[in-house]
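pinging the channel bc i need a second pair of eyes. not urgent but kinda urgent?? the chain im working w is below, pasted from the shared doc
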Amino acid sequence: MATEVETLEKLERRVTLTVALAEINSEVEKRLKVRARTAKAAGFRPGKVPMKMVAAQYGPMVENEVMNDKVGLAFVQATSANNLRVAGYPRIEPKPGEEVEGSLVFQATFEVYPELKIGELSAIEIEQSRSDISDAEIDKTLEILRKQRVHYHTKGAHDAHGDGGPDTSAQNGDRVTIDFVGKLDGVEFAGGKADDFPFVIGEGRMLADFEKATIGLKKGESRTFPMAFPEDYHAKDLAGKNVEFSITVKNVEWAHMPEIDADFARSLGIPDGDLQKMRDDVRANLEREVGNRIKSLTKTSVLDALVNVAELDVPKALLEQESERLANMTREDMKQRGMNVNDMPFPADLFTQQADRRVRVGLILSELVKANSLQATAEQIKAFIEDFAKAYEDPQQVLKYYYSDRNRLADVEAMVVEENVVKFVLEKAKVKEVTVAFDELMNSKNES
């Protein structure tokens, strides 16, 4: 049975748990008898091993299991009887200086969920963004799509697309294939030599001085030139050093981008090659992307406002769990990038600020959802997935993907709940509409 609840500080509590030895011994005996039915030992048939041997073999393990179960049950009963919502895991240990005949006495130290005080929603101000899509944005997008489909032809070699003009020298935007060798103090340095190396002048793949020295050369021509590596160059042994490069141009190719015609439209998934349908399709995709970004910005604005008006203490246990989760996510992401991060230590406070916000937001959302019945409905979840699936060639496959996995569906449910909360807050708050330029919106980085 539990004694009264002690309040240590803020959210920390402590209860005393008393477990009767007779209950433990009785349960251990029962479990050992069950074990004895299948226990094996040399010289005995299965199930015929003497109880003394069964107890010697399994006794310590079974006693530990029973102890954990009984203490755990006592803790659940104690917290339930006192209507305590436990945050994280308790720390359970023998209670020093406390003895009760025929019983074992433990103390459980733990944290409880905080009481939330959310300010008046009608007093908060939310910025809701909007952005217009004009023909200029569609033209820019089509230009990007053209550049993504660029292909190259050797300068001076005539084909169906022409010969690239009379000037066959390398110019900005051309793709050149070269041999090069670099020397530091007259000695070739590591990584400073390559044969048949292609790059596009102006893309920034090579250092600016290297690209500049390539401009004007024709196929078969060579040039030797001095170059200084930047002070912050990634190869420390070359940073800030003056070197000499020799290059020989093997080929010069000009860039040909497809015309915006029926063939181009068909390459974008318009079967009949109708250019207006193509523009309408591009507009629909841009509107979907703009809508998603605006929705994300609005959600962040709402969550920021809620964090500012809510008063609560964050349980240390939840903060530590979330910090560890973020650390594990970071390690996994770094592994995916090919980095060796096994057991890499992170500074103790590296994720504290981010974890604190995430825990606060989670607690606030949970309170609002419970108090205002904002749970996600099956219809809302399905509508969310269907809207998301519109961007794919086979929407039915997308629906199947989510509905075939409970965890994926749970992720969608969480997003729908967030949308319900955002809508609920917007209906009560002071909303100020702000216009955001299309380019600014698309280049913005947003973390909810």
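so The radius of gyration is 34 Å. and The chain has three domains: 6-112, 150-256, 265-443. — does that match what u expected or am i reading it wrong
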